[in-house]
Give the backbone structure.
Amino acid sequence: MFVRCPRNKRFVSRICVFVIVLVIVIYFMRKMQRNNEAIVSEQLQNNVDESNEYEIKLRAYESKIIPNLGNNGEGAYLENSEDREMGKEALKKLALNTVLSDRMPLNRTLRDPRNPGCTEFTYNPTLTASVVIIFYNEILSVILRTVWSVILQTPKHLLHEIILVDDASTEEDVQGLLQYYLDTRLKNHNIKLLHLNHRMGLIRARLQGARISTGDVLIFLDAHCEATVSWMEPLLARIEEERTAVLVPIIDVIEANNLAYSTNGDTSFQVGGFTWSGHFTWIDIQDDDDKGKLTPIKSPTMAGGLFAIDRKYFWEIGSYDEQMDGWGGENLEMSFRIWQCGGRLETVPCSRVGHIFRDFHPYSFPDNKDTHGINTARLAHVWMDDYKRLFFIHQPALENNPVIGDLTHRTQLRKKLKCQSFKWYLDNVYPEKFIPDENVYAYGQVRNKFDMCLDDLQLQEDKIGPLGLYQCHPYLAMSQYFTLSSKGELRKEQFCAEAFDNFEVQLTGCHSHNREQFWLLFKNGTIYNPSLKKCLTSEGVETSKGLRIDTCKNSMHQKWKFTYVNST
Ligand code: UD2
Ligand code: MN
């Protein structure tokens, strides 16, 4: 470029051009050679040491993966009968078919589970996310499938980092092998693995992950999840619009036995509720206006494992109660706190993540402590005001028990954030929640003249069973706590007494429009079912057996007395 060939002397000029072309060709050839050398040297660096014990293990593991198994999120089946038997055993022992998981590709494909309407939205968030995944003794393939799904289903520019927190697992696999996998198979992704040096429980483990994260938004996941297409965009976009919105995706079920990614159909889903015993429950969407919406909708509580929150807001709003141990309670604590202290909790219908729901915990807790109970007692004292009475009926031994620890920090936090009362939460966020002793006709034990009481006979949630009769307990035990509600239901929190044509009375789900669930309490103590025109009777009913309805007569067996009756 800086050399000029003389124009007048043709021969000299030609030689000159030739020399210049030659120089250019040599220059580019050398450059290409240098590039090749760089690639080769990078490959050399990449060349894993084949004699490394982790490499040997990983290759053995990788060689057993069955291509395409479980693709499209389908449930899978192992052809090999020995594997199949081992899988069944694992399911019994660990509540998960770990053998099947080990054979299934880590990056299996999933179908788009969303409501088709979701594809019409475009989101262009500018925020980035730190995905925090905590685990204790989860198997490698399950953790890695979670990680792979996040990588594959998230646009690169939105995924700031993935932070894995090992809550001091004792299983060998997740010690060195996971780090080795990340270093060799996923080294171009920003993934950090933090090993805690002693078991901290899932609440403090999440806090440790949050502390080292630097993305705009924190997204927590359990270590046995699979994210689906476009799961992150609507979460980030909503937080960008409303930084105090805390978001949960729809949580689909990955079946523990065959790893099928299953949904309740692409349109129907539930939001979070709670029971007075302090447990999370799924509830139907409460507001009619919210039904069918594809934009974020109000959720009174969250399940706890999968949610997105602005990182700075997470700390401002009080992160977690660090004195909560083990497992449980933190999800309701955070839900109440978010709502009461000015934030919002929402379910995002166009974001869907699968989660393996296990039938039992495959791990034990140090000292066998009831961490769920203790943690819930903590949150009841801090957030539920006088309504904590309804929790402590379930857990009387915990009410003034020193085991729940010091609450000063959390009560101070509540003051500092100037949070609303629990009554405000019930009135404004969850007005449909049944309160067994407020605005009702009568509640408490329902006793007859023979000191026998109505009793749910320990009926399990989601079941139907007889409305029973049992000796009255000397204290108000939950199994004998009944309410005659303002709608005329004779009910517990979850069940309503329903009279049947064969004169049996069963406890079933409450449907307020069902006439057979409507009862009247007369001044003389009879409990009357107007629909069948009969009265509740204990005549001829053995202890622990179901009550009946019968023709109303002036019988001692048809006189009932509630512990508390409101005058109205
Ligand atoms: C649900 C939540 C879970 C948590 C819990 C209440 C969902 C889908 N799951 O229970 O996230 O909020 O309710 O506390 O919402 N783990 C540890 N250390 C431990 C015990 C567990 O790190 O000491 C990990 C575990 O490996 C898993 C996560 O914590 O990744 C949640 O545990 P889980 O899956 O057993 O809880 P889950 O889904 O039954
Ligand atoms: Mn889980």
Summary: The first strand starts at residue 129 and ends at 135. The two ends are 102 Å apart (CA to CA). DSSP finds 14 helices and 25 strands in the chain. Residues 10-46 form the longest helix (37 residues).
